[in-house]
Amino acid sequence: MKPWRPGPRVLAWLAAALATVLLPHVLHLPPWVLLLSLGGVAWYGWAALGDHRLPPAWLRAILALGAAAAVYATQHTLFGRDAGVSLLVVMAGLKLLELRSRRDAMLVIFLAYFLIVTQFLFSQEIPMAAYLFAAVFMVTGALVALNREGRSGDPWEPARIAGRLLLQALPLMLVLFLLFPRVPGPLWSLPRDAHGGQTGLSDRMEPGSISRLSQSDAVAFRVAFEGAAPPPGERYWRGPVLWSYDGRAWTPGWISSRGASGDELQPLGGAVSYTLTLEPHNQPWLLALDVPAAAPERARLTADLRLQSRRPVTERLRYRATSYTEYRAGTRLLVLERAMALRLPESGDPRTRALARELRSASSNDPDLVRRALARFREQPFVYTLTPPLLGQDPVDGFLFETRRGFCEHYAGAFVFLMRAAGIPARVVTGYLGGEANTLSDYYIVRQSDAHAWAEVWLPEQGWVRVDPTAAVAPQRVERGLQAAVAEGEPLPVFRRTDQQWLRDLRLAWDTLNSRWNAYVLGYGPELQRDFLALLGLAGLGWLGLGLAGIAGAGILVLLISLWLLRRGDGVRDPVVRSYARFCARLARAGLARETGEAPRTFAGRVAQARPDLAEPVARITSLYESLRYGPRPTEAATHELKRLVRMFRVSG
């Protein structure tokens, strides 16, 4: 039996739909995956158009097993987001090589719908959502073309029908989106690597780590203050606190996980309240204005005044917080804390250790030593740059005495090392500094390019005191942002380099739109749903009530759409039905109206009895209409012949 082969129109729609679905995966899947899948599409097109044979079953089995082995070799697993989507993409292309029936084509189309959903595992931004809506349109067009194959020669008919179907589905989609019961958390567990592409601040700081992050224009979080925002010099956003140094990198160490004891923080000024929307970064810490007064829900405040979430932040998180920008913290230093805050590697960086001894002998007390160290940064030819040179075996010595070129992690790390070598407890704090006011909306945007590192030293009767050695070298970094502190030609993000106000306004407008999308579409959870229902006067609905309301709303919409379609008349778009309706209208104007439910052949016989002169053309039109309407699928030539006969039909007398 000869296998089923689609016509050119179905093949074109199917190939275009698969290409549209696969295209976004270029951004995150290995190139060979897409090449193999598109190769299967091309192979099937060559076989279908040229009436060639498809590959035998043994070759298809080898290709499928080879593809699975290649996915395993590339991803080291067959499960998870990346491996699973790679396998689906490959199999979508190879499935075409066993396309021998209309049922197989339907399976390919349903697989394409599923592949559209998998793209949301990688991106949920507005441009991607718009693109995937276009992909749904293309796949629906392929579905229409497959089911209407041979009925019409109009190449745009699938596009028109697919467009109408999607427009009719939009109200139903909106009702289900608003009323479908929302539960806290996801309905199912995502793969372990579903959040692997999320980037942000790390809890490991080494030369170059923050400078690389500062070249990204991605949003880290947005914050809306209740009242006036603090001045730029007080907008330090506290993240990981780093205690341990191994000679190359700073890490938190075990002491950073201790819970707050209750006497660490003494406010010296007014509180600042704000709402922060944190982008997912797949790490357990939260950001807060330095320093937070208390932990938000489902988080805790550690002894080093850092906010710690119960689990990694893998979804956009919105929380309200209160902070103090003027405070005294940790005036009572525990023995273990002191030991950890003074700990250094046993050897390495001898010149820095000698400098620390020199500063200690020349200083009257610890605050005086801190001032002398900052004066050294301020007075010597240090340069603040995003492209510092590589450092050798003794990185602190190399930075302080040789290159003198570095970013904030170089200054913070070297300063803390110097303080510890001089006998002053110190630690590194990483986070963000500053933020851009969105003049089109009432919030600030803090980007990855605002990443920053500073130091904290412990002084008697003062506790932990923030010291930012970067401010001694480049004070404009604190007051005016990164772009004002680095020299021309540094690898800043594109929008950081431009002075065009209209480009800045355009970026802010786009960010405002993104913020609304994140808050009201992606963030439409149980709380927002309750607020929306309260506006409708349905605040008391539980899960059962919500489910019934959703079913009722969907049912009403389906009923309205059905009534609208019935009113328009079923088949009004069918050219065969439209031509016959025009034929019956001409006879009705001559007093020969067709009765409701009267069969075409019975009507033709009655017309022939009343008007023998019309018997022959009426019989020809009726016979052709019946064959087109109730026989095999109509051909384009026969449809045009019916149109011609009706157009030439005239009733005289």
TrEMBL record:
Q: Does the keyword Protease apply?
A: yes
Which regions span the lipid bilayer? 57-73, 104-122, 128-147, 159-180, 532-565
**Which keywords accompany this UniProt record?**
Hydrolase, Membrane, Protease, Transmembrane, Transmembrane helix
* GO molecular-function term, one example from the UniProt record: peptidase activity
Q: Where is the signal peptide?
A: none
Biological process GO annotation list? Answer: proteolysis
Kindly give the SUPFAM superfamilies that the UniProt entry links to this protein.
Cysteine proteinases
Q: Where does the Transglutaminase-like domain start and stop, copy by copy?
A: 400-471
What are the coiled-coil residue ranges?
none
Q: Which InterPro entries match?
A: Bact_TGase-like, Papain-like_cys_pep_sf, TgpA-like_C, TgpA_N, Transglutaminase-like
The record's section on Pfam families has: DUF4129, TgpA_N, Transglut_core
Write down what this protein is called. Transglutaminase-like putative cysteine protease
